[in-house]
Design a protein that fits this description.
374 residues; 4-stranded mixed beta sheet; 8 helices; 24% strand
């Protein structure tokens, strides 16, 4: 069976793929999303939910600008989705905190942010001593030597976001096929022929947003995606009385009252299991930040794989060998969702490439790739 009534075919139904698909369908395109299924390595299901600027892009200011632009668009992006679906995304953008237990680490982090501000310009942050931090976050522990407050940082429910994107995509006429694994892509006569799940799909444009799967799919259309997994583990407590208004990169309290604790970074290949030693380390650090967590019941844990390039920054690229094929790879799909649904989708539709992403090509890794993958 051949399906040809498609303008753009998106491979990957996580937050990255669905944000792009939503943006394309909102602009009037006929969009089909193919999603591999629950046995795939899904970054979206393990996401911490941060909408974050602080600390991003020290070695590449364009990334700081791109993240900042997305964060500034997030409020209207969320309002638009909620108005259409009635789904509260639990977005809070009242600022975020990075906590420190060591004075030297705090000073080094502040120097990093000062360098970013010098490079980017509009980059607000405030260094808080223990007294000022206590006023903002009364339950902070005595071992915390200070924090940095980023007024533009925040958090959102990643699962509610994904649900909202899918629901709105459907109402706009988009089609999502779940449990379909892409097996082969051929570019012929300005069309992309995709073999997946025993069917052939044909479209004028193709977007690869398959996370770690992009490594295999990219070379089929002359694109290079040197991505590798990086595991993060998360602890989730029982519901607690609200005590933490401002999220951090290590601890956040959700709208439901549960506390998520995480931010481990482990190079363990495609192993997305949890480990007792790493979970114990995460819990120990969290108790130092907030002693009231001592004794809280942990109700679940999970491990998930981030999608990481060698330098940690995204790849946004259109294939030179197969024009109309785009590769989108990043590990900050929540923060960047507003840009993916807006300017990035516009670029895929034919608008000028956003200046901030012009340096995010795979050629920076100095690898030549041919359409046959050799």
């Amino acid at each position: 069976m051949i399906s040809t009534d498609i303008d753009t075919l998106v491979i990957g139904g996580g937050v990255v793929g669905m944000s792009i698909a939503y943006g394309l369908s909102k602009a009037g395109e006929r969009v089909l999303v193919l999603d591999e299924g629950d046995d795939a390595f899904r970054a979206a299901r393990g996401n911490f939910g941060l909408v974050w600027v602080q600390g991003k892009g020290e070695e590449r200011p364009d990334y700081a600008r791109w993240s900042m632009a997305s964060v500034l668009r997030w409020s209207s992006f969320a309002q638009e989705l909620t108005a259409a679906n009635g789904i509260d995304l639990e977005l809070q953008q009242i600022g975020g905190l990075q906590f420190f237990l060591d004075e030297d680490e705090l000073r080094a982090y502040v120097r990093k942010l000062e360098n970013l501000r010098a490079a980017v310009g509009d980059y607000p942050f405030e260094v808080l001593d223990p007294v000022a931090l206590k006023q903002l976050s009364p339950h902070i522990g005595p071992e915390v030597v200070g924090a940095v407050y980023g007024p533009r940082d925040g958090h959102v429910s990643p699962l509610r976001l994904l649900r909202s994107l899918v629901q709105r995509f459907h109402t706009l006429g988009g089609i999502l096929r779940n449990g379909v694994r892409c097996e082969q892509i051929v570019h012929r006569a300005d069309r992309f022929h995709v073999q997946a799940g025993g069917k052939e799909y044909v479209a004028g444009k193709l977007v690869l947003a398959a996370g770690l799967g992009n490594r295999t799919l990219g070379p089929m259309v002359g694109l290079h995606a040197p991505v590798a997994p990086n595991r993060g583990q998360v602890l989730v407590t029982e519901r607690m009385q609200p005590f933490l208004r401002h999220p951090s990169g290590h601890v956040r309290q959700t709208g439901e009252g549960v506390v998520q604790i995480g931010d481990s970074k482990e190079d363990v290949g495609f192993d997305d299991r949890t480990s007792i030693d790493q979970l114990a380390h995460i819990a120990h650090r969290a108790r130092k930040y907030f002693p009231l967590l001592d004794g809280a019941n942990v109700v679940r844990t999970w491990g998930a794989l981030r999608v990481m390039t060698p330098d940690g920054f995204p790849i946004y690229e259109e294939s030179r060998q197969c024009p109309g094929a785009f590769l989108v790879t990043c590990h900050s799909g929540i923060t960047l969702a507003a840009m993916h649904a807006g300017p990035l989708a516009d670029w895929i539709r034919g608008a000028a490439e956003p200046a901030a992403i012009s340096t995010f090509k795979a050629e920076r890794f100095h690898v030549q790739v041919h359409a046959d993958g050799q």
